[in-house]
């Protein structure tokens, strides 16, 4: 993409990962008995370059909010004004993402990258509107190339800002009425899956609306040149929060901080990020498996297995927040559990 | 069981559960979008009889420890002395259960209900040995009827003690070399499953040892009268920690406190508890799906779906602890999320 320089993402530290695996085998537990937590611990060692890895805290969930021209196509039963209303609700601490963030000790920040309306100013809210909503992706490109670039850069900047403020675990969040539609379009375009396989009911589409939504996604994707580069795909069929999240993932990875993915919006953004910078995937943790079918298609394409699977389909960052204590437990296990020698425990 | 009076377990409070479902529908999120967390919130309301339910905290994990005569049959590659060594390790705070308990803010207590050796005294440790290990279940009954009764009563007593001390979420833990063997025998006996379907590798049995273990379980179960009552099944093929855990579940339910199940040892104990008092199941939360195949068979029989599935097979309470923040999040969501009216958010 002309005019945009993405930060470099280094590979994971193989020495720290090997040290983590060796340490797991000396801890007072049967080898391998902590399953995926052991792999997660090694990933955190590789990300931070230290074994045992530091406890990934404090935690910030960044809720990127935007509106979508495709809302006019009737792809959701909810009015568009809900986006700005929910921005205010999250700022006031009343949304599900706030309750779950309090549960796991995470701070919530909101970044308006393209909401149509204006929420009242709030200390949690950064206004960085690229525009007041994207254009309708059924009629043409959702974003201009310049808009897409600026949204990605906003995401990178906010990852840096949070890491500079001391956060050591980043969590993706999103708000945006109709945003499962561009998510499905991005996933179809970037994985080759049929729109019918990756389009879901979002916040509550009934059968007829779902069929219409699949058609909307199909029309959007059919406009794309099969050889389009990832920034062009993003601009044509994505959204401002998708672009910002892609940048956020790359920014976190560039600063060697793990990022926990929420649902289908984050997963579609991760496909964009991985297409721009394949090295980013090693820094990602799939927080949960959303009920939206596109999330599973995207995670499979990325080679990521989610930590939690509780039939959630809310977004906002909620599913990813439920995975935060699991990620922290993986680091804590490596750091705090006694070895067989130290605890004088016999071995098999 | 003559001589043992089990406490009564009341049904869940249907009014509180209906109120919880109604409240979920008014919270600022698409109806049903928080999936299994919504059902969990309603269960907590039903258990406590209040909507919204109080945050289930503080949390205690009770690690019941015992040894098993069947260890002599070579069903695990680990020496029996590891049980008492691990009791000391948990008391010292060095085991995985301690690290994960610190992660989720839970307190750890250890109850020795039948370890062969003696760990040094510790403020975390209660010594309530029924005997120094059970008898070998391949040769005859693992416990006398009186031993089984005393172990169950110890579990009930410890649930009461923790609830009286203020704990509002109980978590099952266990320590006991060879204890996946009596777990498999209990599950086979109480569900009718074949021993080959419910016997796993435990802490690391290789193929030949696993085949031998299946045979050991088959011999134990074949001794049982098909019409044996649950206390007889428990005494014949169970273990002290299994009996204590069954009592712990009943005690927690009787005091209207939710109990989170760990892996296969807890799941087999839950089958015993449910056979003694079917009402207890409504108070249980399946923390995770252990890699041990018997755990899944037991959970299916109980009608419980686990919250976490991370290929764990350690025990101690570790998998259940990872589910604690999810359980708390369910209560917190009901209590703290704003309604559509209060937050002035439009609806579909």
What keywords describe this structure?
14 helices, alpha/beta, 348 residues, homodimer, 6 strands
Descriptive account of the structure:
2 copies of one chain form a homodimer. The model of chain A has no long low-confidence stretch (mean pLDDT 97). In chain A, strand 5, helix 11 (264-276) and strand 6 (284-286) form a beta-alpha-beta unit. Chain A is of the alpha/beta class. Chain A is globular. Chain A is built from 14 helices and 6 strands. Chain A has a 6-stranded parallel β-sheet, with helices on both faces. Chain A has helices at residues 14-26, 35-48, 82-92, 96-104, 145-164, 180-191, 195-198, 207-222, 230-237, 240-254, 264-276, 293-302, 318-336, 340-343, and strands at 59-66, 106-114, 125-127, 169-175, 259-261, 284-286. Chains A and B meet through helix 2, helix 3, helix 4 and helix 13 of A and helix 2, helix 3, helix 4 and helix 13 of B.
What's a concise summary of this model?
Two copies of one chain form a homodimer. Chain A is of the alpha/beta class. The first copy, chain A, has helices at 14-26, 35-48, 82-92, 96-104, 145-164, 180-191, 195-198, 207-222, 230-237, 240-254, 264-276, 293-302, 318-336, 340-343, and strands at residues 59-66, 106-114, 125-127, 169-175, 259-261, 284-286.
């Amino acid at each position: 993409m002309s005019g945009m320089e993405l930060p470099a993402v280094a590979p994971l530290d193989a020495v720290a990962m090997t040290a983590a695996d060796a340490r797991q085998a000396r801890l007072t537990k049967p080898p391998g008995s902590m399953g995926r937590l052991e792999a997660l611990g090694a990933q955190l060692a590789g990300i931070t370059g230290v074994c045992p890895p530091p406890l990934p805290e404090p935690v910030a969930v960044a809720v990127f909010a935007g509106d979508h021209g495709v809302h006019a196509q009737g792809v959701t039963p909810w009015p568009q004004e809900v986006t700005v209303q929910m921005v205010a609700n999250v700022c006031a601490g009343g949304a599900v993402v706030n309750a779950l963030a309090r549960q796991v000790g995470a701070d919530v920040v909101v970044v308006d990258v393209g909401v149509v309306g204006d929420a009242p100013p709030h200390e949690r809210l950064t206004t960085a509107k690229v525009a007041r909503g994207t254009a309708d992706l059924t009629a043409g490109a959702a974003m201009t190339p310049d808009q897409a670039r600026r949204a990605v850069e906003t995401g990178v900047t906010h990852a840096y800002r949070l890491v500079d403020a001391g956060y050591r675990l980043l969590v993706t969040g999103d708000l945006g009425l109709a945003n499962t539609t561009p998510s499905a379009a991005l996933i179809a375009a970037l994985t080759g899956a049929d729109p019918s396989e990756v389009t879901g009911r979002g916040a509550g589409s009934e059968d007829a609306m779902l069929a219409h939504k699949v058609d909307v996604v199909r029309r959007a994707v059919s406009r794309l040149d099969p050889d389009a580069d990832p920034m062009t795909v993003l601009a044509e069929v994505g959204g401002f929060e998708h672009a910002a999240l892609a940048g956020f993932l790359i920014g976190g990875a560039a600063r060697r901080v793990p990022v926990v993915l929420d649902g289908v919006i984050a997963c579609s953004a991760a496909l964009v990020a991985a297409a721009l910078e394949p090295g980013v995937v090693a820094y990602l943790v799939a927080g949960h498996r959303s009920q939206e079918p596109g999330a599973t298609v995207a995670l499979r394409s990325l080679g990521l297995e989610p930590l939690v699977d509780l039939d959630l389909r809310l977004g906002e960052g909620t599913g990813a927040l439920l995975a935060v204590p699991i990620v922290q437990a993986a680091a804590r296990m490596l750091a705090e559990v006694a070895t067989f020698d130290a605890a004088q425990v016999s071995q098999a």
